[in-house]
Amino acid sequence: MKRLQGRACVVTGGAAGIGEAIVVRLVEEGAHVAVADVDGERAQELAERLSGSDGEVLAGRVDVSVPSEVADFVERAAQAFGRLDGIVNNAGVAIPGSAEDISEADWDRVMSVNLKGVWAGMKYAIPHLRAAGGGSIVNMSSVQALVGFPGWAGYAATKGAILSLTQQAAVEYGPERIRVNCIAPGTIMTPMNQRIFETAPDPDSLIASWNASHALRRFGESAEVAAATAFLLSDDASFVTGTCLRVDGGLTVLGPSGQAT
Ligand SMILES: NC(=O)c1ccc[n+]([C@@H]2O[C@H](COP(=O)([O-])OP(=O)(O)OC[C@H]3O[C@@H](n4cnc5c(N)ncnc54)[C@H](O)[C@@H]3O)[C@@H](O)[C@H]2O)c1
């Protein structure tokens, strides 16, 4: 029996990068998955690619910063699968800028996708998880919730808030057997980071310095974040709630002497 056999989950930002790897992994583990992404075409292509798997896959164009779109999609998924057991609030955008430099428009944008989007996913999934007798929520935070990186004020603020929201909701919904956890990935090579490297003045030295900032001296793979997500959604994590699982190759425990090598 597969670990997530017959479970139904929504994955936001599931058309590319970490989200895509999560969708693939959940389907491999037997889950039915609803892929919500602002890139509806790519989400649809992924659903078609995975058709014929054990788990059913449906896709929709959803902008998570618009709560009514999240509400409609969660409802559609619950109707299609007859239940909902989990949601992975993964969609996010990386908008740089220090506290001084970031524009108000960029601040509002990063807050509304990264933070309001996670809240909306939780708000509209929780009644379905309750109806299923319990469930699991996984929110995508970042190492930026735990340590500071210059130039990412708004993004880091959203990821710290996701960590606090996760802890708060774990306490609030624990009595109803709804577990709420978040993941703090280190650097994962995805389209998000490819875009950062493409626009860097010296991509090779940026890549080398980012590699060196992890104890494992390498970037992570999306599949490694997907494996952690599948664990948190599964009964293997039945006593795990309110935690922030670092999937960061040791980035947050590496001291300055480690970086000298
Ligand atoms: N890549 C990393 O190194 C890294 C590290 C820590 C945390 N994260 C977090 O992991 C998550 C996924 O990152 P990624 O690197 O895979 O990003 P990505 O840009 O490669 O992919 C993000 C996906 O989300 C979708 N998306 C963007 N805005 C959306 C919106 N408003 N509504 C719905 N979908 C939307 C995109 O279309 C895309 O399919 C993000 O929350 C990110 O902050 C990434």
Automatic annotation (TrEMBL):
Top enzyme category: oxidoreductase
EC number: 1.1.1.-
PROSITE patterns noted in UniProt: ADH_SHORT
Example GO molecular function: oxidoreductase activity
Keywords of the record: NAD, Oxidoreductase
InterPro entries registered for this protein in UniProt: KR_dom (IPR057326), NAD(P)-bd_dom_sf (IPR036291), Sc_DH/Rdtase_CS (IPR020904), SDR_fam (IPR002347)
Record-annotated Ketoreductase domain positions: 7-181
Xref: NCBIfam families: PRK07231.1
Family designation: Belongs to the short-chain dehydrogenases/reductases (SDR) family.
Protein name per UniProt: SDR family NAD(P)-dependent oxidoreductase
